[in-house]
C-alpha cells in the first residue's frame, strides 16, 4: 500500500465520510482541517488536525490553516530526490501521499450575490495552493479535486494498492483545470463588480 497519509480539506462534503472510512480501512492516516475534521470525527473517523502537524493554530478566522512548510514540504518533496528526503528528515516532516481538496464555493455565491465582502471571503487561497502543489508533484502525490473520483481511487487501491501513474496524471490535469476555471470565474465576477475593462 503506497498511500499512507492523506490530507483532506473539502468545502463540498459530498461522499467524504464514506471515502474517508474506506481510506482508513487501508490504514491511511487522515490529516484534516476545520469543518472537515469535525465532520469526520463526528462519524468516528480518526483524524489528525493540521494544527497538530504544524504546531500552529488556524488563524484569521480560518483564512490561514495549511500554508506551512510542514504541509507544503510534505506534499512537494520528490521521493527520488535525496536532497528532498534529507530536508524532510532534518525538519521532521512526514510525506503526504494524497491531497483531497475542493474549493470554497465562489461560483455558487456569485450566482446569489454581488456583495463584495461575501465574494471576497469565498475566494479560496490555501485550497488552490494545495491542489497546485499536489498536481505539480503528481508522481508522488495523488490529487483529488472532484468527489466523483472517490470511487475510482478506492477501486484502484483495491485492485493494486496504489493509483497508477496515468490516473495520477489525469487527476493532476483535472486539478489544474479546476484552479484555472476558478481563477477565471473570480476574475470575471470581480471585473464586473469593479467596473474595470483594463484587465
Describe the model.
The chain is of the alpha/beta class and 199 residues long. Helix 8 (126-136) packs antiparallel against helix 10 (165-193). It is globular, with a radius of gyration of 17 Å. It has helices spanning 16-25, 34-42, 50-54, 69-76, 82-90, 106-112, 116-121, 126-136, 150-160, 165-193, and strands at residues 5-10, 29-32, 48-49, 98-102, 142-144. The protein is built from 10 helices and 5 strands. Strand 1 (5-10), helix 1 (16-25) and strand 2 form a beta-alpha-beta unit. It starts with a strand and ends in a 6-residue tail after the last helix. The longest helix has 29 residues, at 165-193.
Largest sheet: 5 strands, parallel
SSE pattern, N- to C-terminal:
EHEHEHHHEHHHEHH
How many helices in DSSP terms? 10
Query: Uncertain segments of ≥5 residues (pLDDT<50)?
Result: none
Structural class: alpha/beta
| Distance between the first and last residues' Cα | 47 Å
Give the mean pLDDT. 90
> Helix share of residues?
40-55%
The number of E-state strands comes to 5
Give the overall shape, derived from the CA principal axes.
globular
What share of residues are in beta strands? 5-15%
Rounded Rg: 17 Å
The spatial strand order of the largest sheet comes to 3-2-1-4-5
Q: Topology of this protein?
A:
Layout lengths: L4 E6 L5 H10 L3 E4 L1 H9 L5 E2 H5 L14 H8 L5 H9 L7 E5 L3 H7 L3 H6 L4 H11 L5 E3 L5 H11 L4 H29 L6
Parallel strand pairs: 1-2, 1-4, 2-3, 4-5
Helix pairs in contact: 8-10
